[in-house]
Amino acid sequence: AILEALLKVSASENNTETRTHQIELAMAWNRVDIARNKIFSDAKKWKTEDLHKLMIKALIKHRPGFFKLFLNLGGSLETFATENNLRELDEKHFNKCSKDKHNPVRDLFFWAILQNYE
């Protein structure tokens, strides 16, 4: 209820920056259902690069439901999984964990890549 109230307050501004902030709030609360039904309820087309930024945030925050939502909205693993993006994710985020520890974010990322090529 709190998250929905916050979304209503900012709903009057319908620009990419406001909507991105709304999505980040939904991610922080881990409410992919609200993101799908309230934020992405209209037919607005998102730019691929905006979706890619959100996909990175979803991976870093361990939000596989959001990652899948962004793919369904037009995010592309083929264009997302560039060498530069993969290197940045690995160096800035995945390597924060020890090499011998299990890293669920890295596992999710590679699982998502493999799912796209089946």
SSE blueprint and pairings:
Elements: H1 2-10, H2 16-28, H3 32-39, H4 48-60, H5 64-72, H6 77-80, H7 83-92, H8 104-116
Helix pairs in contact: 1-2, 2-3, 4-5
Order of helices and strands: HHHHHHHH
The total strand number stands at: 0
Report the structural category. Answer: mainly alpha
Low-confidence stretches: none
* Sheet with the most strands, sense and barrel status: none
End-to-end distance: 39 Å
Q: What does the average pLDDT come to?
A: 78
Number of helices: 8
Rg value: 15 Å
Task: Name the shape in a single word.
Answer: globular
Instruction: Estimate percent helicity.
Output: 55-70%
| Beta-strand percent range | under 5%
Question: If you had to describe this structure to a student in words, what would you say it looks like?
Answer:
The chain is mostly helical. 67% of the residues lie in helices and 0% in strands. The protein has eight helices and no strands. It has helices at 2-10, 16-28, 32-39, 48-60, 64-72, 77-80, 83-92, 104-116. The chain starts with a helix and ends with a helix. The mean pLDDT is 78.
What descriptive keywords fit this protein?
0% strand
Short description, anyone?
With 118 residues, this protein is an all-alpha fold.
